[in-house]
């Protein structure tokens, strides 16, 4: 299942990097899955990833629950707008995921908040993917 997660994240990163408008905002890092120092804002970071066996009697599969965190030093509106742009790009993900097939990719919810100690705003978007 780890390979399916990596294939999904790589495809999502490619889709983001192919979108000129989103890359103009995010810069060359695109979506990051590690801490970048010094951190540049706004930023989209891979948060919680949970993979579950979703195999049937006929095919192996995985259900992937993915959270992307959009961080802003400016406002909640900017963080939520960034999530909306990532959702737009993610809605067109290809079915082929490097040896896997993306059956379904859906937005589940978005929650935003202000991180008082850091002085930042974050919008967390949760997605559900089914991969065979």
Assign the structural class, choosing from mainly alpha, mainly beta, alpha/beta, alpha+beta, or little secondary structure. Answer: alpha+beta
Measured as a percent range, the helix fraction is 25-40%
Largest sheet: 6 strands, mixed
**Could you tell me the number of beta strands?**
6
Listing every helix as H and every strand as E from the N terminus to the C terminus, the arrangement reads HHEEEHEEE
**Discrete helix count:** 3
Low-confidence stretches: none
Overall mean pLDDT stands at 91
Radius of gyration: 15 Å
Determine the N-to-C terminus distance: 10 Å
Strand portion: 35-45%
Strand order across the biggest sheet? 1-2-3-6-5-4
Q: What gross morphology would you assign? A: globular
Fold and architecture overview:
This protein has helices at residues 2-17, 20-26, 76-90; strands at residues 31-32, 43-53, 62-72, 96-97, 100-115, 120-131. It starts with a helix and ends with a strand. It is an alpha+beta fold. The longest helix is centred in the N-terminal third of the chain and has 16 residues, at 2-17. Strand 5 (100-115) and strand 6 (120-131) form a beta hairpin. The radius of gyration is 15 Å and the shape is globular. 23% of the residues are buried. A six-stranded mixed beta sheet has the order 1-2-3-6-5-4.
């Amino acid at each position: 299942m780890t390979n399916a997660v990596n294939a999904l994240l790589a495809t999502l990163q490619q889709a983001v990097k192919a979108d000129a408008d989103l890359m103009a905002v995010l810069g060359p890092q695109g979506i990051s899955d590690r801490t970048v120092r010094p951190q540049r804002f706004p930023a989209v970071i891979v948060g919680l990833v949970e993979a579950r066996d979703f195999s049937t009697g006929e095919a192996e599969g995985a259900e992937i629950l993915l959270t992307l965190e959009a961080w802003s030093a400016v406002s909640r509106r900017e963080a939520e707008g960034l999530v909306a742009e990532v959702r737009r790009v993610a809605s067109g993900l290809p079915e082929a995921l490097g040896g896997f097939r993306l059956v379904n990719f859906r937005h589940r919810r978005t929650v935003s908040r202000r991180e008082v100690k850091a002085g930042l705003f974050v919008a967390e978007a949760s997605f559900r993917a089914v991969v065979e």
